[in-house]
Amino acid sequence: MALSALLEERNVTRSGRRAGLSQPAMSAALARLRHHFYDDLLAHVGGHYDVCGGSSIRRPRPGSSR
């Protein structure tokens, strides 16, 4: 759920709200996901995160259920 929210929102605070977590808790979840997948997953770009170029995780297509 945290990964899905992060990939869709691309913002730690908003994705945390969506998942029912605080911003620090969502940041910690992102750190655990990065460690689990051995992948940066998302890179901070301006005021949001974007999927890293070499990441094996891809952002869901708009309008897709998953």
TrEMBL record:
Q: Which UniProt keywords apply?
A: DNA-binding, Transcription, Transcription regulation
InterPro entries in UniProt = LysR-type_TF, LysR_HTH_N, WH-like_DNA-bd_sf, WH_DNA-bd_sf
**PROSITE patterns documented for this protein:** HTH_LYSR
**Domain of life (superkingdom):** Bacteria
> Domain HTH lysR-type: where?
1-52
> Cross-referenced PANTHER family, in alphabetical order?
HTH-TYPE TRANSCRIPTIONAL REGULATOR LEUO-RELATED, TRANSCRIPTIONAL REGULATORY PROTEIN
* Name listed for the protein in its UniProt record: LysR family transcriptional regulator
Q: Please give the organism.
A: Streptomyces akebiae
Highest classification ranks of the organism: Bacteria, Bacillati, Actinomycetota, Actinomycetes, Kitasatosporales
